[in-house]
Amino acid sequence: MTSENLSTPVQYLKGVGPRRAVLFERLGIKTLGDFLHHYPRLWQNRHETQDLRLPTASGLIVLRGRVLRASSHGAGPRLGIYKATLATAHGKVDCLWFKHLSRSYDAFASVKAEASEGADLWVIGRAEPDLTGVREIRVDEHYTLADERWRMHAGRITPVYALTEGLSQRFVREAAHKAVEAAAESALDLVPAELIAKRKLLAAPQALRGIHFPRSEAELEAARARLAYEELLLLELAWILKRRQTRGIVKRHSYEVKRTLLTPFRVKAGFEFTPAQKRVINEIFDDMRKPYPMTRLLQGDVGSGKTVVALSALLLAVENGGQAALMAPTEILADQHRATLDRFLKDLPVRVATLTSRVPKKEREKILAAARAGEIDILVGTHALLEAGIELPRMRLAVIDEQHRFGVRQRTTLRQKGSLIDLLVMTATPIPRTLALSLYGDLEASTIDEMPPGRTPIKTFLSPEAEAFEAVRREVKAGRQAYIVYPIIEESANQDLQSAKSEFERLKASVFPDLKIGLIHGALPGKAKSAVMAGFSSSELQVLVATQVIEVGIDVPNATVMVIQNADRFGLASLHQLRGRIGRGAAESFCHLVGDPRTEEARARLSIMAETSDGFKIGEEDLKLRGPGELLGTAQSGELSLQVADLFKDAELLSYARADADELLKADAKLQAPGHKLLRERLIALYQSRWNWIDLA
Ligand code: ADP
Ligand code: MG
């Protein structure tokens, strides 16, 4: 065997051909080598079921036996049942094939031919509800023992692949088997030999065989671990290279802490910064004074006071004659930041402008001209500022709020364009450490780990609506304000919005007719949004009905109660962010979760919320419930290029990979040694386009 096998086009696999090759290409498979790296989506234990009464992990029943008798029960061309009674280790079992479930009538015809009297079969299916005492199985797949290919599908741990229209599971599985037979042996190791030995890993051919057609659970786990390690090693190498590239850049500007703006700002703030805030401000200032650009992540739970920290950094830039940008994910949040800046910077010689999509064209032109002329010190806007081709000739610092809505690629693109500027990204999304390190591997992290003093923890309840509304009444009577939130799920956005609006009408007309109540949602024109927000901030409105547009950034300390409707439809991170809108003043705050959780997972989410308000704990639980893929969204996990590595379960492998990547690059900074050639090529192939960057020249 030679490595040519790896580059053989998939069409030359027996049975594939040029037409199906096009379908395989949709799965990202052009060559046998690609096929080897198209790992199964999951694996099913298809050893013969030992006890028919016990549910199996996959929900499948797997039996082997001889057909004793068989019969067709027909009902026209579309409907029909084929029934074969099988003699199995568990006695007689009736197996049913349903014609309307068959993919084609041909398939149904072949059932009759293959499962005829006297045939030896494997059947894979599900138990039919057992009403009559007769054991019945609804068959999904069957394989005749006369055809050796059954060994790929039954009586083993069986791979299940991602499919595309026109390719069946059976076909892809058999093709995968051929690809493994033809090419796995030629697979070369990306992972350098010394690391394979050091970490006691399987060699590539063994790992690829094991991931596709494992002979045991242990072999599958060893194969998975080996391939996960490889993915994590590549990821860590990419991050280190990224950091190294940044550190090689020499900034044109430098900073001196002059305090001409910083001191008056601190005095104006009217509160003492917490020790945690002071610590992270120092970390940021130290970074800004280094010769290479800062790339720092500022983490802090909702309400921990990240804004004044960001402002301190912005002011250091301005004190030194620079310009800076502050970017938020939504216009509401950009406006909120602007309001905060105005409050803290009142009477200070700092020129601030806001640029969002709703700034009229003329005004926009003026702001852009002023920015170009260097007459604006801090420009506030949404993330769209990045794309808008804005010129800030003395730009030194960009602060990006709510980083979780902002992908790795966007961040690395920014670093590439404005490679000289300092970058501070902020997040309140509580991300467990392992995940943070992998997702923000190019960043140094600062964490605000304490809340400003005088906060009372929020009490959270699962309540019926009536009780929740009573709480609203009680708080409003005491002079406080309330949020009532309705979720909008993307798939049913229109309908949800309609129901939020009609709920608002109902609340206004018949539940709180005596209260001043406003409505805010994402589809509201910008001006109207600002007006409603201003009304709530000034306490003119007592109750604010909202969709999750209030998830981030809104800061009304007098609001002490929040009702979250249909709370079971929100994810944990969203619930936590939402809840963070209350509990911002000294008075005790209450969050009422109203909803009807129908799944275990939804129930778990709500009880976690009732139990804790620690963002990092909630993040861990979220990761457990949803897994990293869903937590990050497909876009972001795609950017990380992880197929089998699980950032949560593989924390230990990740730490090995990090240490090994570090050593590897210390010894061979550009991966030029012959033993590192494959690693280098794969690294470039994976991350060059995904991150819009990789520098190994
Ligand atoms: P987040 O980290 O969620 O962005 P903010 O920066 O909006 O939090 O701060 C939440 C609230 O706490 C704001 O009203 C802010 O002015 C206030 N705050 C921030 N730091 C302190 C502090 N050290 N002492 C008292 N209040 C503070
Ligand atoms: Mg904030």
Average pLDDT taken over every residue: 87
Low-pLDDT parts are none
Strand percentage: 15-25%
Class inferred from helices and paired strands: alpha/beta
> What small molecules does this complex bind?
adenosine-5'-diphosphate, magnesium ion
In total, the number of strands is 20
Q: Could you give the distance between the termini?
A: 33 Å
Q: Give the neighbour order of strands across the main sheet.
A: 10-11-9-12-13-8-14
Query: Helical region count?
Result: 24
Largest sheet: 7 strands, parallel
Helix share, percent: 40-55%
Shape: globular
Radius of gyration: 30 Å
Account of the protein in words:
This protein has 24 helices and 20 strands. Helix 8 (204-212) packs across helix 9, helix 11 packs parallel to helix 12 (306-319) and helix 21 crosses helix 22. It has a seven-stranded parallel β-sheet with strand order 10-11-9-12-13-8-14, sandwiched between helices. It has a six-stranded parallel β-sheet with strand order 15-20-19-16-18-17, with helices on both faces. It has a five-stranded mixed barrel with strand order 2-3-4-6-5. The chain is α/β, with parallel strands linked by helices. The chain binds adenosine-5'-diphosphate and magnesium ion.
Compose a concise summary of this entry.
This protein has 24 helices and 20 strands. The strands form 4 sheets. Strands 10-11-9-12-13-8-14 form a 7-stranded parallel beta sheet, sandwiched between helices. The chain has a 6-stranded parallel beta sheet with strand order 15-20-19-16-18-17, sandwiched between helices. A 5-stranded mixed beta barrel has the order 2-3-4-6-5.
